[in-house]
Amino acid sequence: MNPLAAIGRAFLALLEAIGRLVLFSLAAVTHIVRPPFYPRVLLRQMVDIGYYSLPVVALTTLFSGMVLALQSHTGFARFSAEGAVAGVVALSITRELAPVLAGLMVAGRVGASMAAELGTMRVTEQIDALSTLSTHPMKYLVAPRILAGFAMLPPLVLIGDVIGIFGGYIVGIYKLDFSPGAYIDQTWRFIEVRDVVSGLVKAAAFGFLVSLMGCYHGYRSAGGAQGVGRAATSAVVSSAILILVFNYVITELFFAK
Amino acid sequence: MSGSGEPKIRIRGLHKAFGDKRVLRGVDLDVGAGESVVVIGGSGTGKSVAVKCALGIVEPDRGSILIDGVESVALRGVAREAVNARMGMLFQGGALFDSLPVWENVAFGLVAAGQHTRREAKPVALETLAQVGLGPEVGDLMPAELSGGMQKRVALARAIAARPDIVFFDEPTTGLDPIMADVINDLIVECVRELGATALSITHDMASVRKIADRIAMLHEGRIVWSGPVSEIDESGNDFVDQFIHGRASGPIRMAVRR
User: Fold this and answer.
1) pLDDT digits 0-9 by tens, B151-193
2) What pLDDT band is residue B259 in, cutting at 50, 70 and 90?
3) Helices A193-219 and A3-33 meet at what angle, rounded to 10?
4) More confident position, B179 or A150
5) B188-222 pLDDT tens trace
6) 3-class SS at A48?
7) Which chain A residues have a beta carbon less than 8 Å from that of B113?
């Protein structure tokens, strides 16, 4: 086989996949803003994404805050800069860890489940059935999920911010012997509105991406149970990669000098 | 064809290919108003694809599908929804929405088409369930809690709930025991008659064919190779039909290995 032809084919396939995803995204966004709307479906998705992801996001950010306090204390102790621990925990949690970890956790929990649900609906003809019942599947299935992901990740991350900082506080007070007042004071002195806002913007973007990838792979699923499994895996992997890429892009937009 | 004038559904030169696989190669079929036509044919001959083309789920490569004389191929958005609102479809596997209770499945089309609010639609859904022999207690169950036969009944109730002009049945008795299959066949005949609807069914269950069909069309290799009244099926003089209705392994039909 001609290697150049193989490279060309792979490149064309990549362009085709990007084109399909962009068209799907545009269609989804237009369906979000055009009636009819499905508030009951939206509410159910918001509860599923926001409320039921809370335990996993809370645990992840709590332990991340705790380990961050421990590790940064080990590092800063070498330069007698232990006082910076509270600030580093607050900045790291709000700017990076809470949005990225929450995004990745929601990708694993919600993205996979969306892909599996829509994939199963595709292979059992439930999506076709929607079309025969005067309902556009994109509007009923995809638009509410994407809107719910976009809307629910920011509050989830805000809660994660508080819990993550609280995790650092617990380790700081009970393990590293900081005084509670000094730890809280350090946290307030370091943290700025921009740190929290950048994290929330990331959260909204990640919520959009996770739901989009879950819906995209599920909606296009084919080939029975194996296809549904593949869709769930692809949804998680592609969401995780896009979260890391967009994390860099948004960080660059907010903090690049 | 019962009734005079133009047919309710007129399909002409319908072609559809998936990659290299040419599934439909020029299907021509008329279904008269109030008539029940059953399309028979082996697995993978394109029966489901033809029906999905009529419903706008699959877009044909070329050809024409006239519903009441109006071209429906390439209809989009509101125009497609308006045509589909006059049609009901019973899917092979039922295709019930497993996140919704039974009554919401049945009421789904009524609410989506704006005919009823959710609250108004519930009694209509329960009435339709009664029409297919299911009590109101079934309404609050989830589809996963039902047996295969009951799921088919619910799917039938959903297909007829909005009182459509045209009902499509895709393998309505597949996966059912012979008694339940006969119950479903009776329900189909009864419901279609009561609605005064036109029915286009696809199946390879000959008992079902003989019960629900006014006319039969045989699809083979993407074309209709024979069509005639159900009374003539045993003397069709067509080798494809003879092999199919007698279920013989030998004959002109070679079963496709791939879909």
Assistant:
1) 999 999 999 998 899 999 998 888 888 888 888 888 888 888 8
2) low
3) 110
4) A150
5) 888 888 888 999 999 888 889 999 999 999 999 88
6) helix
7) 133-134
Asked if the C-beta of B56 comes within 8 angstroms of chain A's C-beta atoms, the answer is yes
Contacting residues for B18 by C-beta, under 8 A, at least 6 apart = none
- Tell whether A16 is covered by a domain: no
Q: Is residue A240 part of a domain?
A: yes
What was the ipTM of the complex prediction? 0.88
Q: Is B79 on the interface with A (CB under 8 A)?
A: no
In DSSP terms, B21 is beta-bridged to B18
pLDDT tens track for B87-127? 999 998 889 999 999 999 999 999 988 888 889 999 999 99
- When divided into structural domains, chain A yields a total of 1
Give dist(CA A203, CA A214) in Å, integer: 16
pLDDT of residue B235: 85
Nearest CA in chain A to B93: A124
Count interface pairs A-B at CB distance under 8 A.
Answer: 48
Would you call B180 an interface residue with chain A, using a CB distance cutoff of 8 Å?
no
Judge whether A232 lies within some domain: yes
CB < 8 Å & 24+ apart, contacts of A236-243: A236/A107, A236/A108, A236/A111, A236/A112, A236/A115, A238/A213, A239/A103, A239/A107, A239/A111, A239/A209, A239/A210, A239/A213, A239/A214, A240/A104, A240/A107, A242/A209, A242/A213, A243/A100, A243/A103, A243/A104, A243/A107, A243/A206, A243/A209, A243/A210
* Residue B41 β-bridge partners: none
Domain of residue A229, residue span: 36-255
- Using DSSP's 3-state secondary structure scheme, residue B64 falls into strand
* Residues of chain A contacting residue B98, judged by C-beta atoms under 8 Å apart: 126
Asked whether the beta carbons of A126 and A74 are under 8 A apart, the reply is: no
Q: Are B225 and B242 in contact (CB under 8 A)?
A: no
The pLDDT, as a whole number, for residue B255 is: 65
What is the distance in angstroms between the Cα of B88 and the nearest Cα belonging to chain A? 7
- Kindly state whether A39 is in contact with chain B, defined as any CB-CB distance less than 8 angstroms: no
CA A137 vs. chain centroid, Å, equals 24
Which residue carries 């007829």 as its tokens?
B160
Contact status of B87 with chain A (Cβ, < 8 Å): yes
| CA distance linking residue A209 with residue A106, whole number of Å | 11
On whether residue A9 sits in a domain, the answer given is: no
**Distances A191 to A13, A77, A195 between C-alpha atoms, Å:** 45, 21, 7
